[in-house]
Fold this protein.
Amino acid sequence: MNSTTLQPIFRTENRPTTAVQRFRQPADIFEALFQSIQGGETHARPTLDLTPDSPFLPFLEIGYALRACLEKPARHDYLLQRLRPHLSVMIGSLPASILPMGMLPKLAPLPGFRRLEDIGDDEIHDWLIQEGGLIYGEMQRFELENYFDAVKPFLPPGGVMVDLGSGLGKVVMTAALTLPFIRCVGVELLNYRHRLAQERLVRLLTLARQGLDALPERLTLDTPLKLPSGVMTTGQHLLELGARIAFIENDMFKVDVRGASLVFLYSTCFGPLMDAISNKLARELPEGALVSTTTYPIKHPAFRLLQTYAPGTLSWTSVMIYQRVGPQMAQPASEARYLHQPDIDAWEARVREELVAMTGGV
C-alpha cells in the first residue's frame, strides 16, 4: 500500500458531545467510555520523588545543579556554556524540568549533590536525553479517531498493540475500544502516570459493566457488534474489555515488543532517543509489524514508510506509519541519523530573553 491509497476524511476538531444518560444500545456504552478517558493533558504533574532510594536520584542531582545556575543571574553565562554543546539533544530553549513549573522538587537538594562544575559533559548529555522523555503530551479525541482510521487499512485482524510511553493510557484504551485487537499494552516509566492510567482503567471497566448491565437486551459473547471504527466483531469485545488491556510500569527499552503487530510512539519529545528506539524495534519486531511515530520519522533500513501525514491533517503534528521489512537485525544500524544542530546564536539570544523574563537576569 502506498501514498496513492484512498485516504479517509480527517476531522479537524472534536465533535460536540453530551453526557450519556441511558444505555439503550452498545453505541451508548462506547460513547460514555470514550468520554471517560478524555482530558489527560490537563492533569496535575507531581514533582519527582526526592528520597535516598528514588530511582531518579541521578537525574535529580544534575537537574538541581542546572537549576541552581538558572536561579542566579550571575551564573547564567556558565549555564549557557554547559548547555551549548548539547543543543542537538535538547527540546526547547531550556530544559523543561528546571523551569519554575518543572518536575524537580522545590525542596533543597540532598546533601552530597554535586555542583554543575563537578558534573561531566557526558552526564549532562545523557540527562538531557532522559529529560526529553519525561515531557508529556496527548492527542485529542478527534486526532485519535483520525489515527485509527488511517492505520486501520494496514492492520490484519486481531494482533497486539503496544504504546511505548503510554502516559495516562488514553491511546491504549482508545485502541482497545476502537479496533478488535487481541491485546493493547501500555508501557510507562513514571510511576505517577502509570498509577493514573490504572485508575482510569478501573473507572473505564466499572462504567463498561454498568452500561452492559443496563442494556435492554443482554449482550452475549457472540452478539454481532459494530465498533466505532465501523469494523464488525462480537460482544466479546466489550464483555472481555478488561482482559485485553494491560499497563506496565517500566522503561520502554527493557520491555520486549517482539509480539506486537502495531507499536505506537508519541515521539514528539523522543528526538534524541529515535536512533536507540529504531534499533530496538528493528531487533525485536517481526516482519510485517507496523510502527507509527509523530514529528520524528524513522530513518532505519528495517522500516518502509507506508504513509505520512503532514501537520494539521491527521494531527497537530506530522504522523508517519511504517512497516517492518526484512529479517530481524541483531546489530544496530551504524549510522547516527538524528543529529541536528540549531543555530547557536539564535538559541542563545532566545534563552537570554527568557532568563531575563524569569529572573531579571542580564
